[in-house]
Fold each of these.
Amino acid sequence: LAARWLGPSAWGEIGLARGVAQVWWVLPTLGAMDLVTRQVAQDRTHGLRTLAVLLRRLPRAGVLSTLAIAGSLAAMGGSSRQIALGVAAGGVSTVAARLILDDSALLGAGHATKQVVPTLVARGIQAVVLVAALAAGAGVWSVIAAWGTGEALLAVSLAHRRAVHVGPLPPAGPEDKARTLQASTPFARNLLFGTLFAVGDVLVLGALRGPAEVGLYQAAAVLALQLPVVAQVVGRGLLPTLSVHPADEASSTITQVARPLWALSLPIAVGGIVLAEPLVLETLGPAYGGSVLPLVLLLPTVPLRFVQALLTTALTARRHEDARMRLARLAAGMNLGLNLLVVPAWGAAGAAATMLLTEGVVYTLAVRAQGRTDAAAPVHDAVPRVLLACAVMAAAVWAVPWLPVLARVAGGAAVYALAVVSLQAASIADLRRLLST
């Protein structure tokens, strides 16, 4: 909605500000979300002491993060409005750090369902604020206002729920601080490299091609790269289970969850490629015609990201943070290096092609790394049948080009569901296991 309303250039300004804010998010969080979840799952008192250290350092770390964001945007030649957007994004990111840390403790204690209702309410209010602000002519600040409102509401709610269902924060001394900072180091590195991989293309596009090119790329990314958030939620939901279960049970869980992840993500990639042009033009408008090719190139990364999120969660759960860090470091270096080569000539399409190539390499290495752990698990057994069901769906969607794009999406989903059931590409038991996370 915001992308269509604001246009590529303004949408790109927001994307660039949030991208730089994501890089510096490592300062307020130290990347310790999974650490908190794992520690609370294994020893609640120990985990709460870690959480106490992280939350007490948060305000000062948030200020440092915001200053770093402003300095980075200034160094990139950003306008005063872009720098102001970055400062606002830094403030909201600090609030988001608070809520994600409390959320991690709830997850580790087995109270993930306590977050569902407040999250739905906060996101509903956020949508109302966005529409109202856009209608009032607030422009780019509409997105910041809506984002900040949603994060603030969630932060208050989750802090209360964490205190009630997990426990109040215990006192934490110098030894706890030193232990937490030491334990957080590999997680902070993973987050930094992972973030550079995730937003490196945006940073290079913003520096070399300007906000409008960022806007075209971000429009495609919203339609493709935001979908794997579902898999990240699933992965975080599985982290406590994979951390404490014996290796054979953890391996069985990984295989069982991978099947429905393929069944959900592959049709998005295949159907999205078939419908890319009408999907972009009818959803975002003709100004985003330059987003069609980037979307086609980004969509194959969706299934890779879905399953990779599961594999990297398994690495963390089985205490292989070093392997995860090597993957994150490779992804960041490869993505940034290739973007510097191709973005000047190819813009958003070049950035999307770089992302696809990097995702393919990192996914292959993630499969190998997980296969070397004590909970090694096969994750590809359902792929051939799912691909066959996707082929049936693609043929059905391609055969009715005169229908509106949303009707083709709905019809394709119905055909795919029938094909999946007929081919037994995923079982009800597997789907239930996925939903239980």
Amino acid sequence: GAFGPDTAITAPLLRMLESRFSPRPENAWRSPVLRSSHAGHPLLDLQRSLTDSSSTAEGLALALLTPTDPDLVCEHLLRRSPAKRDLTAATAYSLASYFGWQCPRNRTKYFRRLLTAADPVIRVAGAVYLATEDSTEGMQSLRSMTSLPGFAGRWASLTLARRGDRTTADSLMTWMESPASGSQAYWHHMLNQRLQFLTLLSNSARSSHVPDPPYVDPELINSGSKEYRKSIRRLQKWWADVRERIVLADPWLPAFASRGVD
């Protein structure tokens, strides 16, 4: 398939699956490590930390407050300043994804609210997780976001492709050619998106009974090297040959959706 015999991607994909299927905690304060981080006046400290986007405390506060006060966290995400650098785009993705994963109640309501967030990455997160609660409404919102620049638009496109949209897969094929740049966190998120797309193509080819996609060396992804560009051109030719016969389908999607996870 797209990965051939190489097992370089096995471990990170397994870790991703393990995290997606771990239970949603009823009360994050049960963790003694996290609880001790804000001893004394925890609620006040957490509320202050939530607005401190320059500190790692923002992530800790969001993780602790999401199960107990999702309304406060949602309001914070709505107002959070749009990412001006790739590093903050990766951070917005992580924060909004955690909220989408762990939001304990009124999920559809909160995800609809995120569609109006100041940050486009957080708007896409709202649409992605809305699709886990209301597929029709979530997909409609995602289609309006594929033209967003950078990470946000690619995330919307990949989510639609995983749900069978071949048109967004066309644009992702073009994006696969470009070299990655930016912070380490952003580079990692781009690598993860590309691995997800290649996995989707490989699984879809097998279930659609069309030829497997050509091999793409995981070690070269994001490199922009001559060999990598050649492998992507072979992949694009394969896509042109099978496009009208393949049914894009993520085999993990039903299991994820049943747990409210993307």
Amino acid sequence: MKKLLLLLFSLIAFSCNDQLTFNSVDFSEVVNTLNKTYTAAFDVAISSKPENVYSNTYELIDRELANVKLDPNKIRQQPQAEIVGAFHTTQITSANLNLSFLNQNQKTILIPMLDKILSLSDIALADEIIIKFNDQVIISSFTTEEKFQLLSISSGVKASINIISEAVSKYGVKLIGTPIVSDEGGDSNNSGGSPASDTGGINVPGALQAGVLGLVTGAISGGYAGGTGGTVVFPIVGTITGAVGGAVVGGAIGFIGGVSMSIVQDILFSKPKYSK
């Protein structure tokens, strides 16, 4: 009986240690690192000349996150037809995106989050969506690589929401496609994604869609480039395959570049009317 109990205890201990080894990566620290890096990248992108947005973003992420040999110009110039496939629409949703850089299980958890973000009427709700998504990813049975890839996407979304809010405060512009406060102090709602040049503000749905398009562009390009380069070392998570590492870095550059270009364009149209 004692031997049986000892054997049972040993099996339980081995199982626990194995689980601890599998979960040895502190994913909360991973999220913090990604958020910090992508926020800094947005600051660089927003302050760059349009022709330098992608290259400057790449340099920062390459320096702070991982060294993946990518061509920023390819991320910028990918034809939209390759991103949305056979669909011809101005409304970007997860249903018409080429998410081939993810496996089916990753898509199952990511698609609902992306759809919620893309359909938000109030970006103040984004944080709650992202937190729930991160928690779901972290406690899942995904591999470290799979978790890292998904958390990179959600961190980029969070950083984009923060930079949009900062731009509104800094430049005195409004948000389009989300509830805002009018000049007279009353509530108003410029929904429907109207062009920012017409109403003077940042087109939030347009910026996020531009970011998601850039994410797909960059992830596909980066995954292909990274797949030819062996492995990549990232902070905290360590070594991951080159294809996944390339998709993470490329996706981040594309997302940040897409959102930033959209925001800058909206600010330039809006600034004469709403600048402080």
